[in-house]
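User: Please look over both lines:
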Amino acid sequence: MTLQARLTLWSMLVMALIVTVVSISDMIGEINRQFEYSLDSGNVILRYTPSIINVETLKSPEPDQVDAIAHSESLKTKIFDLAVAWRAVEEIAVTDPGGHILVSSFPHPAGQIFPSYPDFTQLVERDHWWVKWRVLFWTDNIYQLSEKLRDAQTGKTEVMVHVLLVPAFIRANVELILRDHAWVAIFSVAFSVLGAFVFSTIAYRPLGQLGKMLDLVAVGDYEFQQVPPVSTDEFGAVASKVSLLGQQLKGAQSEFSDLKGNFERLLDEVEDAVLVFGRDRRLIAAAGAVEAFLSRGRIDLVGLSVNEIFPASTTLGLMLAQAIQLGRPTHNRSVAIPTGKDETGQMKVKRALLGVEFLGEQAGMLIRLRDPEASRQIGRQLQTADRLTAISRLTSGVAHEVKNPLNAILMHVELAKLKLAHGDHDLEPQMEVISSEILRLDRVVKTFLDFTRPVQLNLSDVSLADFVRELADLARPQAEANNIEVTVEDPADPVTITVDPDLFKQAVLNIVVNAIDAMPGGGKLKFWSGARGDQAEIRISDTGSGIPSAVRDQIYNLYFTTKEKGSGIGLSMTFRIMQLHDGTIDLESDAATGTTFSLRLPMAVLTS
């Protein structure tokens, strides 16, 4: 249903509702008027009856008014005629103060007590319309109006006049009136609905055209030539904006199509196979080298379950079933994927690194298959880049250390030339300086050669927690001598690392020694170890004065030091050892809280 049709329908319904409510209110008012008319009629009888009584009692030979009323046949006749003259009146009765009937328009036994009925005034003036409706159409209840006639001199009540009314007597008259009002209401509703329809059709026509334009936008058609132009009022302004929006969306759609094409081409070039499963464990998206690993097209796999793509009968399917059951992610697990049979009938197998990530509780999951050779190639490229960076740092440090003795040697050679030119042959001071600088230069070169000489790693599996505790025990005597508190926080789960224990211990101890030196007045030295994602990590934290930001980029350079008696080799050696273990080293330092070194090893050398 279009927007114009909905608005037209609502306008018709609102108009019909308004007219209906007005008509019902008019009918309710008519019911109230009929009850008020009946009340007025009863009050007229109450006012007229005493005058009849006075006239008739004056004619009677009885001296007592009560006896005169009781024996007056003409009074009885007039009261009967008065009751018959009014439609809603059931009975008119006159009683003594004790309630005994003296005369009535309805025959009663002499001396009978007049019964009590609900007050008609209460019904008319105080009760709601639905109470009157129920009394009028669903009951035959009797109501009364009463008036006391008092003696003019004594004020004593002598007789009482009662008028009984039955609302049901006016039912036929009310029904006739309501029927006429109902027909008027029906015609009013019909004409109002028709008028609302005509008015809405004319008034909402521009809005209908806008609705067509919006419908075209919703289905992706941004050309509005087939829609007739709208008026130049507010609707026209909105239409022009919708048209402008359509043009912008058309351009955005074109750009999105280009972006989507580029993105799909990028996914096709990814060497990993990435599969995304929904919460029902059915494939909803696949990208990358899926065909290379599974020998099936991505389109053919969409909608299949994990078990259908990776049967539980295979090693990969069994590992995935265990991972899903435990709900634990998996990183870089080496798995064998069958890719079919060769010419001899033997099953061909392709190695891959499996990664499983869960996208929140009760949500989907992501499975990634990576070519281990590609990962190793990327790792080697990164190692080469890191080692080139390390060589650059080393050569810059060596150049600095070599430059100083060469300058000193050159300066003293020139000084010796000047002395010889002036006939001074005492060159012993210059020769001693030149000799000492040559020895210094020799030490620098030997250190550089030792530093860059290839190292044969003796790798072995070591418990990370035991390794860190051994380092803490080695550092504790020197730390306690400097009033430094040593604490160790073990990993939550057992972690095993593959390192050269001696070399790696030397790398960590170089950091520990620097941390102790940074707290001459005492402090805290903390060791933390554990697994972070797919890496093992060791953190050494101190509460010293921190490392100035100006020298943080130079601390791993060979021969760079901020200590008076430092060699500038320790952290360079640590950096080199971490490179040999394919690890990384980072630091966070602040003058208020101290320095934290983080040493990380890749998951490839970590098992848990």
In short: The first helix runs from residue 3 to 59. Residues 225-231, 604-608 have pLDDT under 50 and may be disordered.
